[in-house]
Amino acid sequence: MPQHGFYAKVRHGMPAIIARWLDIGRGEPDRLALILAETARVAKLGEPDDTPDGAMLRAWADPQASDEVPLWAGRTAVFLLVQMPARPLPGDDAEASAWAYCWLRNRNPESFEAAREALPEHLREPLEAALKAAWTDRQGLRLV
Questions:
Q1: Across the chain, where does the E strand assignment appear?
Q2: pLDDT digit string (tens) for 22-31?
Q3: SS3 content of the chain, % helix, strand, coil (to 5)
Q4: Residues 109/115, Cβ–Cβ less than 8 Å
Q5: Does residue 143 register a pLDDT over 80?
Q6: For residue range 96-132, what is the model confidence (pLDDT) as tens digits?
Q7: Which of 13, 40, 86, 100 is the most exposed place for a label (fewest CB within 10 A)?
Q8: Tell me, what's the pLDDT at 144?
Q9: Are 103 and 134 in contact, with CB atoms under 8 Å apart?
Q10: How far apart are CA 39 and CA 73, in angstroms?
Q11: What is the spatial distance between Cα 48 and Cα 76, in angstroms, rounded to a whole number?
């Protein structure tokens, strides 16, 4: 059975991913929103209905906005964050859960080991528990 508590944690962590992108991304919020939407389209991580603006991005970064953050935005922010030379890390368990969930959705690995090995080295330990939970959740959903 899927871990319903895990997905709730993922949703709770999504605003933190957007906040981290706003915090360490280079540029004004409007530019960062454009980069997020265009990257989603080009990397095939989702199809935003509209390109958000900086105000929308800031609204999604609000901790109370967990159910409002589109999955494409979280997936794309993780896609961009893991490539940054600043080597950002998730700040708490909910954010780590969201990172791990998005990582699996972005890569669709064949095994937990493949998913873990594909992570940048600096993220393997911080995401270990969350990635296991995400993998278990993903496997549970395949049974539905």
A1: none
A2: 999 989 999 9
A3: 65, 0, 35
A4: yes
A5: no
A6: 999 999 999 999 899 999 999 999 999 999 999 999 9
A7: 86
A8: 40
A9: yes
A10: 10
A11: 11
- 45: tokens are 């991580």
Q: What residue type is 40 in one-letter code? A: A
Average pLDDT over residues 49-71: 96
Residue with tokens 């605003």: 15
Per-residue tokens: 96:
């780590």
Q: Report long-range pairs for 90-94 (Cβ below 8 Å, ≥24 apart).
A: 90/13, 90/16, 90/20, 90/126, 90/127, 90/130, 91/16, 91/20, 92/13, 92/16, 93/9, 93/13, 93/130, 94/9, 94/10, 94/12, 94/13, 94/16
CB 30 within 8 A of CB 53: yes
Quote the DSSP letter at residue 143. Answer: T
Report which secondary-structure segment, H or E, holds 51. Answer: none
Structure tokens at 139: 């496997």
Looking at residue 127, its amino acid is L
Q: From CA 68, how far away is CA 96, in angstroms rounded?
A: 18
What pTM did the predictor assign? 0.92
Q: In the chain, count of helices (H) and strands (E)?
A: 8, 0
